[in-house]
Amino acid sequence: MATWNPDELNRITTANELDIAARRPDGTLRQPTTIWVVREGDDVYVRSYRGAQGSWWRTAKSSHAGHISAGGVEKDVTFTEVGNPAVNDRVDAAYRAKYGRYSGYVEPMVAEQARATTLRLTPQP
To answer: InterPro entries, per this entry (predicted)?
Structure first.
């Protein structure tokens, strides 16, 4: 499995936002959606603010592939669903630490609806 190099990891996760484009069944990319991104350890995570209703997330969940852009990094990625409660707890903490100043927005990002959409982003080789 591919991993992020330290420079990419730092640039992506210090960016305030990330543009994400999930791959459709025909192989084309959806229009990018701007979302928040967090780091936990050496992994990168995203969630859908709208939970399972987020259209970018539904496409990402079905295709498991897409493209991201953040901090000057452009990468094709694989999306992996996260069902581990302990990992989700750490991702919650990362959202609160990075975006806590936006209390009206961060609380929905750590609520169950958004937690259920947690995806780990892995760079494609």
So the answer is: UCP028498
CATH class, domain 6-123, is mainly beta
Question: What is the C-alpha separation between 38 and 120, in angstroms, rounded?
Answer: 10
Write down the mean pLDDT value for the chain.
Answer: 96
Spell out the domain ranges in the chain: 6-123
Distance in angstroms (rounded) separating the CA atoms of residues 59 and 12? 22
What whole-number distance in Å separates Cα of residue 86 and Cα of residue 54? 24
DSSP the chain: -----HHHHHHHHHSS-EEEEEBPTTSPBPPPEEE--EEETTEEEE--TTGGG-HHHHHHHHH-EEEEEETTEEEEEEEEE---HHHHHHHHHHHHHHHTT-HHHHHHHTSHHHHTT-EEEEE--
- Quote the percentage of the chain above a pLDDT of 70: 99
